[in-house]
Amino acid sequence: MSMLALDRALLVEKDTQILELKDKISAIQRSISELRATKRSIQQRISSYKYPVLTLPTEIITHIFLHCIPLYPEPPPLVGLRSPTTLTNICRKWRQIALATPRLWRALKLTPSYMLPPEEIVASIVALWTERSACTPLSIFTNHSPQVMPHLLPHRSRWEYLNLDFDSGSQIKTLHIDGPMPLLRSLTLAVWDAVDTPLPLLEVPLLRTVVIDDHGPPSLVLPWSQLTSLTLRRTHPDACLSILRAASQLVECRLRLWSQHTPLGGGVVVLPRLESLVFERKGEICRDFFQSLVTPALLRLEIPEAFLRPHSVETLKAFISKSGCTLQSLQITELASLLSYCSYTVAFSSIPQVSFL
Fold this sequence. Notes:
It comes from Favolaschia claudopus. Residues 18-45 form a coiled coil. By secondary structure, the chain is of the alpha/beta class. Among the domains are: 46-105, no CATH class; 108-222. Helix content is 34%, strand content 19%. The chain has an eleven-stranded parallel sheet, with helices on one face. Strand 14, helix 10 (338-347) and strand 15 form a beta-alpha-beta unit.
């Protein structure tokens, strides 16, 4: 056979192979088309599917969101599982709901200062959260920092709970919060290096709860007579008595006394509405202070035994008799001995709840 004949035969063979491959390609293309059609059908079903959580009314989702963060006025973290920012990253609908729920953004914590980001980021955080909180009252936890306060002060009229932590009493001079705070209900102030610097807070008509934790309070000027709950820690007894004399409407009081080297002056302090009085453990012993109080409405007393010595039972009986109160709960802390336990149990058997710690 000539070369020409061989080439012709080979050409026919290749044509045949090409036709067979074209048939296979056509079959594959038909399969691809069928698969694509099936995929579209499945995708349509998926697209039409509604996840149960996304079918809930917005009001229910909002209520769930509010349970994802700490209970107000406790502030949530800026980031993390319990932060409202996490809710904005789940899906578009949840982001819209979270950003439209002011109560998610009404409590803000920016402390301590060494963990804060640069000032421009702090300003951005404060601006975002206060904008998202709309007109709701605010709960602010912060230290006194040049990064923080200038951005919070413009929202002073919305402060409802304010917790300030000072490294030094001298920082109070630059605070400038002596203007109106019409919604403020609770103030917590800590000063770790106290300086006797005036801090007048008078235009606070709703203020009822104050916690002062420092080495002797600065010259606070507060409407003491309108308070119903007061906590004083590291406070000199004389200064404490002066404050209590002015705070005549107290219902709850918690005290941790600081050192006292001179006899108390000023006579008796009457607290006609006081129902709960707690002397915190690890405070200074000041027997004269306890005996200076008259509390006719007192229902609960917690006190270290050292405040009552040397005649503990008699001292406590005299206090109850002088006050004319009807205690419902008595707790003696730092009890000296089992004998003391028996003495109290017998002497105050008329009190429904007597406990020891």
